[in-house]
Amino acid sequence: MRLPRPRGPWSSVVCARLSAEPDDVAAGPIPDGAGLAVLHDEDLQLALWVCYELSYRGFDDVDARWEDAPFVTGVRRQLERRWLAGLRELVPAMPVRPEAVPRALAGLVRADDGPPLAKFVQRRASRTQFREFVAQRSVYHLKEADPHSWAIPRLSGPAKAALLEIQADEYGQGRVERMHSELFRATMRSLGLDDGYGHYVECVPAVTLAVSNLMSLFGFHRRWLGATLGHLAAFEMTSSLPNRRYGNGLRRLGGDTTATRFYDEHVEADVVHEQIAAHDLCGGFAQENPAAAADVLFGAACGLTVEAEFGRTVLRNWAQGHSSLRPGTAGLSDREDLIGA
């Protein structure tokens, strides 16, 4: 994977510096952005995604020494301040008693009125639309579980055991062919998509990057450990039914058992994970760390909010007869101009 093309002044500064040899020069103030809402700020989300990616797989054309260089840590801090300010505007603080955290999480999930993306995909999405959906999701699913795994060394006792139980399933219990990221690769290949890590980053809009950036924001910082766990809980508690619908939608379009296995696996696994995440993980953590109980709900609410906006954005584009991918990236068509499948 190579550095993506910049989308504005912030990502231009970041990509230009990372294209050079690493140095010890700190970051200066970053340029003012376009003033867009954070979930749709292409420049902010791409710049953040690039900074975060240096601590995952990195880029073929970027020296690995940039990861902890003063420029990267400095500019990331500035971008994160703007990212967090935007999130706090979207998600109010939610004080909660530690013992009430599992019940509060269940209430958030019940109250979630996100868009009916899964229903549309199940019943009406064309093959091209389904392929766009999978290409968008690949930004996260090809590293599924990794952002939440930053929490493992920061936990102990029952909460750590609960997280490890969930993550062990995500990583296929140590079997490569059962890792969820590998199952998703099989889904991509069945649809004629390129399964290369990060291949579609150039094509996805800001809100898709925001889904991944939210996990990284919480996962990278020990201060946000509670939010990481809350985000994971919300993810698991809202996953089973949508994945059943995605799998059925792919079957409607002719997908075989290999193509749908990623979704079918989540239907079964996430029913179990839901209870572990809400009670053993988040409930146990809040009891041991009562000052962080509100952070658990903040992380969960942020996850639901960003996912809902992702779904609204995709459906709005499709309803208008447009691709859900970024303008100018050609979309995904039978001619495969973009992916060369």
TrEMBL record:
SMART domains: Haem_oxygenase_2. It comes from the Bacteria. SUPFAM superfamilies: Heme oxygenase-like. InterPro entries: Haem_Oase-like_multi-hlx (IPR016084). This is Iron-containing redox enzyme. It comes from Amycolatopsis saalfeldensis.
